[in-house]
Amino acid sequence: MSIDTAPTVSATALDATSGAATRRDILHRLLMTLGPILAALVIAGCILLAVGVDPLAYYGYVLEKGLFSPLGIQQTLTRMAPLLFLAAGLIVAFRAGMWNLGGDGQFLLGAVTAAASAPVFVQLMPAWLALICSFLIAAVVAMIWSLVPALLRAYQGVNEIITTLMMTFLGTSLANVLVKLVFRDPGTTVPQTRTLPVEDRLPRLFDTTITSGLLLGLAAIIIVHLVMTRTAFGLKLRIVGANPRAAVHAGLGVPGLTIAVFAISAGLAGLAGAVDIIGVQGNVRADWNPAYGLAVIPAVFLARMNGFAAIGFVFLLSVLSIGGESAARRLGVPNHFTLVLVSIVLIVLALAEYIDHRYNQSRKA
Amino acid sequence: MTGLFSEVFLSALLFGAVTAALPLLLAGLGEQMSEKAGVLNIGIEGMMLAGAYLGFVGAFYSGSLWLGFLTGAAGGVAVALIMALLCVRIGLNQIVIGIALTLGLEGLTALLHHFQFSRSYPRLPAADATVIPLLSDIPVIGPAFFKHHLIVYLAVALVFGMGYLYRRTQLGLNLQAAGDKPAALDVAGIDVIKTRTIAVLTTGALAGLGGAYLANVGAGLFIPFITNGAGFLGIVLAMLARGRPVWVLFGALLFGVCLSLTTAMQVAGINIPTDVIQMLPFLAVMIMLVLFGRRASLPAALGIPYERGAR
């Protein structure tokens, strides 16, 4: 069986080895990414004009806050930490052909678990050990949350899109119930969990406000990328993704692998929640749901499930969301415009990839 | 407990259940058609929001609820047109485009609402009910099921219309084939792209109508993110219904009862956080999936764009 032809196997610019070709590939990739983004900005700008906002001022603020101001870029890099973990989890699932659309529920439960456990652990043990324990327990809770969809898919063949969506609705409500009833900080009037003191949170990098969670996130996504592309385990998962029936005939234990995929994917989503809480927020407020998962899913697709490309897209998402929040505040536009911008960027990028693909095909023919 | 289960309370509960179920029913029926034809329509949440916003705008400025339903359906179709163009005609990834459309419409409708209505939050007057004679005189059931807006009865009739369409008509069989074996449909001389486009546009119309009902009759106003996952519930209903419209109706009613129960318990002053009650419908579905999930089947070509001659 030839695995090399499986559609999920990556053949990206960054994996290539020869010098000159690589440079041209990277240039091409860059062009194919920046061009569509520019086009998307123009389209979104027309919407801004229509509602009477100066698009140039808006984008100026987005770039200033999201990319060029020292404080802004630090916030952008900090925002990347949870997104990278989420993207890493999705890469595992999507490469193995499983649609884990339940990232938001897993994320929130991981976040609540970390928020509830970290303040307790820091009183019992050294801070570094406490944080590690919180991370682990957050990952485990998220894994358990994915067990029902995993078992249903593995042994009953139930479509995981429905089950993970259901579990994400359930998880969001459960996270709220936990915050309001179980882990509520008695010292505050607004329902929220106990706040982890700043000195006990993940250390910041050097003299900046960037969380060291960024490094953890980068490590997670690179490890996931290497495991999926360079190891026997990753190959097995990709075979399951490319053709589950062939995988059965090749003697792979598909049910076991399915459960492993869900566990890894959900575990990473749980870690995303933990890194956001332990690194940045410090507590979970009731009804807090940043819904990162929904924006990361298309980004991972556009990155063709390549870890390195996903880092780029996550960076782009972070710039847009941090910059967009600031621009919206300054210009009196509701922050919802960021959603519109992200959506147009995603669609135009998908469209550009299609045009590029067609162009390459016609050149070959 | 006597207060909770009094006759008036019970019929109000059921009335609310029907009102809450209708958008889900329309979304589920729409999604079902897309899925039958092989398109996983994750953009349905965006279509509902477009329908809710434009439906409200139409009804608010014209003063006619029916015109509102029309503009709502048109809004859904407009979004579906983008989906059909990108995912059916040129075959882009349905999940990427679907999620992107949902995100975009969430943002766009919230943005437009901010500039138009966020100062005044206008409301529509309560919708006129069509009272069905005799049946509406039955205690409890009468006021609950037979005093709704005319469109509710039409939607229920549509369930049976859909059943007829899928079983007895050429178009119904074409839709089924477009999802199960598109290549065979193509060989039979039927345009797969056109068949799927019809399905996606119909989904848009139904989802838009559902959104418009939600805003105009259910709530009487438009607020950002008003659909609150109703489109995703529609996807779930369609998948659970295994291609049978009647099951979408039952599923929608089940969700409707749970949603209505949430409001009712708050009114009755029962001290359970709404989050717990909100979990009920999803819990019910998960239990159903655990018990009966094995038999859920989806069209073979679901989510795969059709390209003639491709392997």
Automatic annotation (TrEMBL), chain A:
Keywords recorded for this protein, A-Z: Cell membrane, Membrane, Transmembrane, Transmembrane helix
Subcellular location: Cell membrane
Keyword Cell membrane included in the entry's annotation: yes
Membrane topology designation: Multi-pass membrane protein
UniProt GO cellular component terms: plasma membrane
Predominant subcellular localization, coarse grouping: membrane
GO molecular-function terms, A-Z: transmembrane transporter activity
Protein's UniProt keywords contain ATP-binding: no
CDD domains referenced in this protein's UniProt entry, alphabetically: TM_PBP1_transp_TpRbsC_like (cd06580)
Superkingdom of this protein's organism: Bacteria
Positions of transmembrane segments: 37-59, 80-99, 105-122, 129-155, 161-183, 204-228, 259-280, 292-317, 337-355
Protein name: ABC transporter permease
Originating species: Mesorhizobium helmanticense
TrEMBL record, chain B:
Localization per record: Cell membrane
Keyword vocabulary terms for this entry: Cell membrane, Membrane, Transmembrane, Transmembrane helix
Lineage per the UniProt record: Bacteria, Pseudomonadati, Pseudomonadota, Alphaproteobacteria, Hyphomicrobiales
Originating species: Mesorhizobium helmanticense
Record membrane topology: Multi-pass membrane protein
GO MF annotation, one: transmembrane transporter activity
Name this protein carries in UniProt: ABC transporter permease
Name of one Pfam family that matches: BPD_transp_2
GO CC terms of this entry: plasma membrane
